[in-house]
């Protein structure tokens, strides 16, 4: 099935759902911080379309994009308590409640996006999914968040020395703060929705994210220098509230899990296409993309970060197995 066909199916199902929501026996609410049309949002919509079809309209998933239900940290907590049924979020936002995601968020842990897929789609991914259950969450599907790089409003970053003293927004977790400290920059944790105005007003010099986020958020308008260092390849996932999950029959649970995993295939395809389109768009609009950079000093600077977070034999074994995965 092509991307176009799948999206058409999702659109038709969304239209049907909007017109016949009252016919649904079960309606699940799913949150996303990204705008409508973004690959993660379209992925969950495709999941909703498959669930709607396979349950003959009994189970509907309403997707709320653009932080309508709150920022990631808030919606994860709401999902834990069953206030929201599902959430799509980055591993980075789970660091405080699912410790293994902290390891998965270590800088330069993955050599490429394909490497991260190989890890998550295998036995290691099954182990990680089990850890979410302790936090009253059911991990349904791994989504692609691409590679995160630095962008700023001040100057091109071509070496680690260029980062010295600069203020960068990071997600609200300790690993990312320590990463910036190790690089000689100043970390400023803040909600994603505040980044644009903070760069515009000089509260921060820049942030770090992937091309689609850099583009869709409008950050390219206020931070023209993008350095493709790819320091973080942080997976994302669709997670469901344990209480909402337990209210479903085993048959319906199977439908949701299979639909979520099918949506992951589509989401990754959409993501790759969006990355290429976003790169072309921001470059045409005047952003300077710096690709000539020696990553070795950046990687070597992460030694104290790994020493701090990879402390137990179990963690050391996991990191070793991730690096050995092909």
From TrEMBL:
GO terms for molecular function: carbohydrate binding. It holds the Pfam family DctP. Residues 1-23 form the signal peptide. CDD domains: PBP2_TRAP_SBP_like_3. The keyword Signal applies. Keywords: Periplasm, Receptor, Signal. One of its GO terms (cellular component) is outer membrane-bounded periplasmic space. GO terms for biological process: transmembrane transport. It is found in: Periplasm. This is Tripartite ATP-independent transporter solute receptor, DctP family. It comes from Loktanella fryxellensis.
């Amino acid at each position: 099935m092509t991307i176009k066909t799948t999206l058409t199916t999702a659109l038709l199902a969304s239209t049907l759902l909007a017109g016949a929501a009252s016919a649904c026996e079960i309606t699940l609410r799913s949150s996303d911080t990204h705008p409508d049309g973004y690959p993660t949002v379209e992925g969950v919509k495709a999941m909703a379309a498959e669930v709607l079809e396979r349950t003959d309209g009994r189970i509907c998933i309403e997707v709320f994009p653009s932080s309508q239900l709150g920022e990631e940290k808030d919606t994860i907590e709401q999902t834990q308590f069953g206030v929201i049924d599902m959430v799509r979020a980055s591993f980075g936002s789970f660091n405080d409640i699912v410790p293994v995601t902290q390891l998965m968020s270590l800088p330069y842990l993955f050599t490429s996006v394909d490497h991260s897929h190989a890890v998550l789609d295998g036995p290691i991914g099954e182990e990680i999914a089990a850890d979410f259950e302790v936090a009253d969450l059911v991990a349904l599907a791994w989504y692609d968040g691409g590679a995160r790089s630095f962008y700023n409003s001040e100057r091109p970053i071509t070496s680690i020395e260029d980062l010295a003293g600069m203020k960068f927004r990071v997600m609200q977790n300790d690993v990312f703060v320590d990463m910036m400290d190790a690089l000689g920059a100043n970390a400023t944790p803040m909600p994603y929705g505040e980044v644009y105005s903070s760069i515009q007003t000089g509260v921060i010099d820049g942030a770090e994210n992937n091309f689609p986020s850099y583009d869709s958020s409008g950050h390219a308008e206020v931070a023209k220098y993008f350095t493709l260092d790819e320091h973080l390849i942080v997976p994302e996932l669709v997670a469901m509230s344990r209480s909402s999950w337990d209210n479903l029959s085993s048959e319906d649970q199977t439908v949701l899990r299979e639909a979520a995993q099918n949506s992951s295939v589509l989401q990754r395809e959409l993501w790759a296409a969006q990355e290429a389109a976003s790169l072309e768009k921001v470059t045409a609009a005047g952003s300077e993309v710096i690709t000539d950079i020696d990553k070795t000093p950046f990687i070597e600077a992460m030694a104290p970060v790994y020493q701090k977070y990879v402390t137990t034999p179990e963690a050391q074994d996991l990191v070793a197995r991730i690096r050995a995965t092909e």
